[in-house]
Amino acid sequence: MTVLCMGEALVDLVPRPDGSIRPLPGGGAWNTALALGRLGVATSFAWPISRDAYGALLLGPLAAAGVETSLCPRSDRPTALARIDLNSSDASYRFDYENSAGRMFAPAQLPPLPPDCRALLIGGISLAAEPCGSTVERFATSAARRGVPLMLDPNIRPQAIHDEPKYRARLDRLFALSHLVKLSAEDAVWLAPGMAPEETARRILARGPGIVVLTCGAQGALALTRQHRLYAAAVPATVADSIGAGDSFNAGFLASLLHSNALDAPDSAAVTAALALATKAAAITVSRPGADPPWADEL
């Protein structure tokens, strides 16, 4: 059984202390696919990959982690870039993705849904622009209606949003289709300014998901279900940067639920275990530069 991740693959241009720039592969869904593969979960990734030099940079780590990339159409368009500014170990992003391979992802390029798909993960800036946003929503809607559990991580980047009303409407539709939603506290504040993040998470839970997880950085993470409110403290770490932390959290949480066969009906023990693995995976990721998620033997 395979987890399919669909969403942006791009190259992070990360500044070094000496002022030079280090290109690192990344993107929300790409990072999560890499992390799942490193955790030993059978994983496929689907997103247009450029034939430029950065395309090889994106495919190499996935192959090393055992992630299947045959569902990735190849494109002559350039790889999207994210120019990253690091301020007190927090990352902010400026995206250069106009006419990029991923931004122009069209319905005609969609792969078939793998017959053994156990879960579909989507999110990030792939939902915020066109035509890729409509393409991903179309695929996710079809998969969810066929009974595939959908995990959604909005991973909201305001600077990447071109049409806020359209984007908010898309997220509302996808919340209602999702089985599992992960929000950061920053996501929750953007979705409902002036409302406590936990209240925002509860309102999303009422829309239909079985689980909503709220991550709050150093303040830990909270998981809400119809029956449970479960909390996990953040695992202490010396922070190099925050790049990819939430994506590693996603992978750890989903991998744990799949391992315990609890994705469809999670009990408190399964959710507690998932929070523990997810927070540990995130802590390891923030302790080293770039999106470098842990391997299974590190957990």
From TrEMBL:
Keywords: ATP-binding, Kinase, Nucleotide-binding, Transferase. One of its GO terms (molecular function) is ATP binding. It holds the Pfam family PfkB. InterPro entries: Carboh/pur_kinase_PfkB_CS, PfkB_Carbo_kinase, PfkB_dom, Ribokinase-like. Residues 3-294 form the Carbohydrate kinase PfkB domain. It comes from the Bacteria. The keyword Acyltransferase does not apply. Belongs to the carbohydrate kinase PfkB family. This is Fructokinase.
